[in-house]
Amino acid sequence: MAENQYVTFLLGNEKYCIDIENVAGISENVKVTKVPDAPYYLQGIMNLRGDVIPVINLKKRFNIEETTYSEDSKIILINIEDNSLGFLVDEANQVVKIDETDIDPTPEVIKRKGQDYISSIGKLGGELYIILAFEKILNHDETETVLNFKK
Predict the structure, then answer these.
(1) Which of 19, 73, 75, 125 has the highest Cβ tally under 10 A?
(2) What does the pLDDT look like over 60-85, one tens digit per residue?
(3) Strand residues in the chain grouped as ranges (E)
(4) What is the domain partition of the chain in residue ranges?
(5) Could you tell me the pTM of the whole model?
């Protein structure tokens, strides 16, 4: 039985995770600068070691009720098409191992809604974790639009 490692995070009270191999880093207490005329889900841009990184607000993208971000809020960094993108989350908790036998395919009812960014559902300690494919959260055109804000 193989185990995969995932970074877990919260959006509101819901638990999500992403394969650790897709995470370039996690930033905290980073100032995000708003950008005029940006798509609704683009929180803004941030400066990370001299690089301008677009930051996606996952709550807005997923139509989850907005709350005030706190000192627990984090930005999960991933690379898409050789570019870094940040994803704002309420908390990034820990790294967990989930056995392959405890990972179920995405239910059909979710697949039908066009949510192919939900790659599977993990079960760990009596809890369910929605496993996301961050590279699919934005379609190609949306990714291009967001990346244009860093220029």
Answers:
(1) 75
(2) 998 888 777 777 889 999 988 788 99
(3) 3-11, 14-19, 25-28, 42-48, 51-57, 74-80, 83-89, 91-99, 103-105, 118-124, 127-132
(4) 3-148
(5) 0.89
